Amino acid sequence: MTGPDHPRATLAAVAERAGVSKATASKVLNGRPGVSDETRRQVRRVIEELGYTPSTGPRETQPKGAVHVVFDDILDMYALYVLDGVIEGTAAQGADTVTSVLGARGPARSLGVDRIRDIAARGHIGLIVVTSELTGEEIETCEALGLNLVVIDPVNPLDDRVTSVGATNWAGGVQATRHLIDLGHTRIGFVGGPPGSVFGRERLHGYREALETAGIRAEPDLAVWGRYDAETGGTAAAALLDLADPPTAVFAANDTMAIGALREARSRGLRIPQDLSLVGFDDTFSAAWTDPPLTTVRQPLRQMGRVAARTVLELADGKVPDSHHVQLATGLVVRDSTAPPNR
What we know:
The chain is built from eleven helices and twelve strands. It has 343 residues and is of the alpha/beta class.
């Protein structure tokens, strides 16, 4: 019964009483997949308790809701490019974008179950996680709450319960290293991020594949690991240049590390590219404005953001993705930081 003293129950009230997001309640109401049996039963109980019935009259067009994007940090151009793509993708579908940052430094950055529950409680229809580690418990919590999940550049291996979006990192590593080999370099250093990073290992494997194909032995002391920041690029370059037989070229696994390596080489009086060739990865804005401009592997960062946004909204509509692991093509951009070795 409805009236002034008994207002009509709303879907938001159903979601709040059931302890789920409004999107999950809507999925149950419309018989869509992506909701656990226990959650489905709970929502149906609340619908019956509140006497909720959907309006059958004309409805005004409502926004789809908000997609929550979580970054490990947002201090570099990589994150800004991805965020720009996500915002464009959600806006095209009539949804909003909400952003938060973990803010922790180091290789292991995790959302935590409490953060995921808070995101679901706000009624956000989807979660996009960027370059952050996901635990099995966190994935299960998203499933239980009906929170649609997509990961961009996953740090740790993920199974088919999670849809991920990334780039062809292995192929990009091959492209960067092959370019240096074609110029005549045979001692090529590699600067990578945390050893456990999935996309970092893919770039390393591409580097090794190109060396092996060219008949060049991959020497362990020519690969240095750290974080994806300029400080790591500088310290890694220092370690490589201090070798008794230093490399004539360095492939850094992102542009920021390449810029750090460039600064370290300059501080030693080395000329780029005459004395040391450098290749980065990402092709962010800063790559074209270094001195000299940086040769790099272009990663389609904005497109990755758009694809992730479109995918999470399709999941919210109950659609099944064509692929659980999407990889977009990379391409080498040759600028002035690479040249044949100075013999």
